[in-house]
Specification:
Elements lengths: L6 E6 L8 H18 L4 E3 L10 H7 L1 H16 L3 E6 L5 H11 L4 E5 L20 H5 L16 E4 L6 H9 L3 E3 L5 H9 L4 E6 L18 H14 L2 E7 L7 H24 L6
Parallel strand pairs: 1-2, 1-3, 3-8, 4-5, 4-7, 5-6, 7-8
Length: 281
């Protein structure tokens, strides 16, 4: 599609796998900042539920409607020629959102930024945490019965540095491109994307330091992530964006400082979707 496009901003508030109050607080904090940056009023989906530690089966059953709604929002946006921008507490939304992207934009690659692989299955997960199985379920390594699997060869996983042993083995056996956090991350990511259209999944724990439910040292500094997004936005059409896992601190000053960091790193992507940026030819 040529010319500028509209942005569909979605605040995905309903609980999927939230285990802490900070996750929902993060959505509440980020949404108005992103809305102001984009000049868009958000569509509010659901209300926050009580954070709790559930088995993956419980969370999958209880959040089914919420997850299908996330995929439906992406489907609606793309079918209307708009760019979806979702803010959610957990990576679990990818179980439906990425399938919607693949249906409408089979030419797009998924740029998944995360400290963790999210590539466990119900059989390998030490914790039974559904969000830690999100990418594996999305790629069809296990069946969530929510959506069609996404081609793992079109997924580029960046910034990962904390993997369980069996999870690591599953990733090595898959067609997912895996890029760690290093001095070469930007160049390796550019090469892997190869100027393809891109849908971005950002788990903010890829940053280090940054408030996270499951912090992992050795991540990307904010300026490095900004540079990576600036390079990607300069070379690739940004098909859409989802932001997850802002574990917002209780302290207001700390929370606003972290939110400012998040908006800073997102700015190249938000600017790109706002202007409908793409590379021609």
């Amino acid at each position: 599609m040529d010319g500028p496009v509209s942005v569909s901003l979605v605040a995905h508030r309903c609980r999927t796998t939230d285990r802490t109050p900070g996750a929902a607080r993060g959505v509440e904090t980020l949404v108005p900042l992103v809305a102001k940056r984009l000049g868009r009023e958000p569509r509010e989906i659901g209300t926050p539920g009580e954070p709790r530690v559930n088995d993956w089966r419980e969370d999958l059953a209880e959040s089914r409607g919420c997850l299908l709604e996330a995929g439906g929002q992406v489907d609606d946006a793309l079918s209307g020629g708009n760019v979806p921008v979702l803010i959610s507490a957990e990576c679990t939304i990818a179980l439906t959102t990425l399938a919607a992207v693949q249906r409408h934009r089979p030419d797009a690659r998924v740029l998944w930024l995360d400290a963790h692989g999210d590539f466990n299955t119900p059989d390998t997960s030490p914790s039974g945490y559904l969000a830690g199985m999100a990418l594996a379920g999305t790629c069809g390594v296990w069946d969530s019965e929510l959506a069609e699997p996404v081609d793992p060869a079109r997924v580029v996983l960046v910034g990962v540095r904390d993997l369980d042993q069996q999870e690591r083995e599953l990733l090595e056996q898959s067609a997912v491109t895996v890029i760690g956090a290093s001095l070469e991350t930007l160049v390796f990511t550019q090469n892997a994307l190869d100027r393809s259209p891109v849908y971005v999944h950002l788990d903010l724990d890829v940053l280090d330091p940054f408030p996270a439910q499951h912090p992992a040292p050795g991540g990307l500094a904010a300026d490095k992530l900004f540079d990576l997004f600036e390079a990607v936005a300069g070379e690739c059409e940004i098909v859409g964006l989802e932001v997850t896992a802002f574990e917002a601190p209780e302290d207001e000053l700390e929370r606003q400082d972290a939110a400012s960091t998040a908006i800073h790193v997102l700015d190249p992507l938000l600017e790109a979707v706002q202007r409908g940026a793409r590379v021609s030819g």
